[in-house]
Amino acid sequence: MYNVIIGLEVHVQLQTRTKIFCACSTAFNPDQPNVQTCPVCLGLPGSLPVLNGTAMHLAIKTALALNCQIARFTKWDRKQYFYPDLPKGYQISQFDLPFSHDGWVDVEHEGQLRKIGIIRAHLEEDAGKNLHDESGRRRDSQVDLNRAGTPLVEIVSQPDLRSAAEARLFLEQMRQMLVYLGVSDCNMQEGSLRCDANVNLHVKKKETCGHVATPIVEIKNLNSFRYTEQAIEFEVQRQWDEFQKTGRTIHDAPKSTRGFDPDRGVTYLLREKEAAADYRYFPDPDLVPVIVDDAWLARIQSEMVELPTVKRQRFQTEFGLSDYDAGVIIDQGAEIADYFETVAKACGDGKQAANWVTQDVLRELKERQQTITEFALRADVLAALLDKISAKQLTLKSAREVFLDVLNVEERTEPVTIIEIEQVIAAKGLAIVQDTGAIDAAIAAVIEKNPKAVADFQAGKQAAVGALIGQVMKACKGADPAAVKDALIRKLSR
Amino acid sequence: MTTLPLTTSELHRGLTDGTLTSRAVTGAFLDRICAGDGRIRAFLQVAAETALEQADVIDAKRRAGARVGPLAGLPVAIKDVICERGVPCTCASKMLENFKPPYDAHVIERLRAADAVLIGRTNMDEFAMGSSSENSAYQITRNPWDETRSPGGSSSGSAAAVAAEMAPLSLGSDTGGSIRQPASFCGVVGLKPTYGRVSRYGLVAFASSLDQIGPFARDVTGAALLLQVIAGHDPRDSTSVDRPVPDYLAALEQPLAGLKIGIAAEHFAEGLDPEVERTVRAAIEVYRQLGATIKLIQLPHTKYAVATYYIIAPSEASSNLSRYDGIHYGHRTAQPGNLFELYARSRGEGFGAEVKRRIMIGTFALSAGYADKYYVKALKVRRLIRQDFDAAFADVDVIAGPVAPTPAFKIGELANDPLAMYLSDVYTLSANLAGIPGMSVPCGFSAGGLPIGMQLLAPPFAEERLLRAAKMYEGATDWKTKRSGAI
């Protein structure tokens, strides 16, 4: 019937310490309005912008992750319009020579990898915030300029997305990548990641080939990935219903703008644009163009970390993880993914490392409210513990006991050492007894003391061996129960 | 009333060797302001109290044997377009009537560090748009040589204050001639530095790619002294050039041997008052007698300068003045109604006619469908104008010519003819478009006793050469001894 055509515009706040054109803090501070300001971001008469190099650095990093071309010469343009949250009456942005263009991202959806094109990514300054009176008592609106001047990268995708679900995946992947790179914290609640969606339908013509396009709708102010997906789903249905009713195509109506009401789950008209707004772009005469030379580009490229999608694949091929387990680890962020990898490589057992990291380590981090860098058990030490399990020196159960013991040491000042672990094992006698002589002796003693169980087992009651194993284990603490079972069965089967 | 020594050098020497105190000097100038500014109207604010306080601090420093800065307690008047912390900066506009900047401009910081005394803030055309002070929202300044005539503009008060000896030095700003033209009309020295030589941080912007702050003085030495203090890199201005500042005073007295002076046919064409032409040509002759060679050069794109400037400057101004929206600071209308009305009424009430005119021109020239034809085209012609100068300076060291087509016009004469007012900038505009430095040096008087200035132009960052060439001429003549006698 129809194809869904979606393009996304994502605004990402860069994680710089200070604003893009002045030295004010970028910290999220809704409680004290207008304190993170100065003559420059207030647009006071006589003030001038000066570029924060780190903003350009992080922006280029972002574009490299999006496989974009980096412009070697880029400049600033003034985008002019009047609004109370825009103190200069113009926004310093980039118009015709953005710092990057023509990239792509692979989005995995329903088992398929699809290339989604990126038209461009440019840098600009954020506006402040207008706070309107929601009470209905028609009180004044207020302006908070703390946010004005925060660096934003605007990423514009090609209209290559084909479903609401795919759009959501695109956003989630982008978010994960940007967090991994340390470019942004991508917190939609705090507004460090914002998204607008451009949606229309290509309705297949009945008789002939080809399609007819419905008018494009831009949905603005989407506050979460879930709402983005919901809004697009609603909008697709709405456009289909409207097209069937009116037959209006893209040639009949200009692009309109709608908002999304999450409570009612509907999009609603914000404004019909008679014509595209005229922003009267021109190069900002207060700023000089930026030349990105080879040396700078090489420095930034050397900081590029392995992207999460690539890492996720590699964890599966290199360490034999399931896609699910790899995903769980990747989703925890770069530090935990690195922790896991160190453990896996050191102990040589990826699956075991994955189990421990996703279950035991994550649980402890959550309970102790710690980050992985604060965690007392370093990756190499955990690996050593896991080694003991693989070498059958420790049972899984005992290892977990040791794990908790060392973590629960009060007033720990130093991270856990391997020596400490061995001390706990020795003190509690948890080491698996390898001495087969002792085990044989214990087995012989238990067989003698339990003639009924032996007879039951030899008569075919397999389960009877369980009690015998238990007694051998009691006598030989630290014996490997599997080995004991084998030895018992062998002895009894003779 | 104290009779002050004539030259800035003599004042400076007296202050430095202790024979004069800053308090005495400042007090004497304040007396003259009191006596004469009621008529001349050069000042919007006189900082009598704080000026004397500053003077006392400097005198105390000197008595204690501490090092005193190069301005040594000399008073400097400031065009009301440069931000001084806590002091109203009106730009001669109703829009900023009560605006007090919370910060000092870079040049103000430099002046304070150099131990200047900030004596007051001078009248100008509103937001630096004009050539006569008739666009000021507050008052019209009189030319000290003839109080029925304009002192020129937009740095009207700064030029008049120095000409009437109400301050030995002052700062102005020059976007299309706003230092040089009033300097010429008022018989004082005025210098527009190379674009990027002096920081614009704290200069309320008119046209960002054209504006520069520069000195007024009664002689070349004074201009050099003040330029030395304010020139230099400022990281807070991205267009400020990081290039060492030469010692402008060191070689100032040394004439330039083998000086090649260019005169452009385009500067002596139709529209130039015959008296001005005679006077300027005679001045150039003095250079020949001093051993310079005079060469005819061509600046073929001069005829496009007015059109180019009056597209670029208003375009940038329309953008720079968008911040005056009645929301954050400045004038807000008493009856806002809705948001659009708040904007329209605040700006309608706050801005004068010429400012509105230029905002509209600029908005139009940048608008969709016209930007390529006007703004982008103007940028291209600007490049050609610059190339004219690059070619000329391959052949000559400085270019000499008139500053303005006429001497000072009568107040009211051009006020109703904006276009005629624009055309009077024809000789000065190109220097701003090309970014090169230029000076006006007094070179004579009309039969009616009105000052006439000679313009000297030099390549970028050649202020040293410019000042030395000017000093050569000044030293061979006695124009600097002439006084307006207004007070």
Task: Give an overview in words.
The complex is a heterodimer of chains A (494) and B (487). Chain A is an alpha+beta fold and 494 residues long. Helices cover 40% and strands 20% of the residues of chain A. In chain A, β14 and β15 form a beta hairpin. In chain A, α3 runs antiparallel to α4, α6 packs across α7 and α13 crosses α16. The longest helix of chain A has 22 residues. Chain A is elongated. Chain B has 487 residues and is of the alpha/beta class. Chain B has a domain of 260 residues: Amidase signature (AS) domain (Amidase signature (AS) enzymes). Chain B is globular, with a radius of gyration of 21 Å. At the A-B interface, loops of A face α9 of B.
Can you summarize this structure?
The complex is a heterodimer of chains A (494) and B (487). Helix content of chain A is 40%, strand content 20%.
**CATH hierarchy class name of one domain in chain B:** Alpha Beta
Q: Under the CATH scheme, which architecture of one domain in chain B would be assigned?
A: Alpha-Beta Complex
> What is the residue-averaged pLDDT of chain B?
96
Radius of gyration of chain B equals 21 Å
- Tell me the number of strands of chain B: 11
> What best-fitting shape of chain B do the alpha-carbon axes yield?
globular
Structural class of chain B: alpha/beta
> Order of SSEs of chain B, N→C?
HHEHEHEHEHEEHEHEHHHHEHHEEH
Largest interface: A-B, 28 and 41 residues
Count of individual domains of chain A: 3
Low-confidence stretches of chain A: none
Helix content of chain A: 40-55%
N-to-C CA distance of chain B: 10 Å
CATH H-level name of one domain in chain B... which superfamily? Amidase signature (AS) domain
Low-pLDDT windows of residues of chain B:
none
**How big a fraction of the residues of chain B is strand?**
5-15%
Q: Separation of termini of chain A?
A: 74 Å
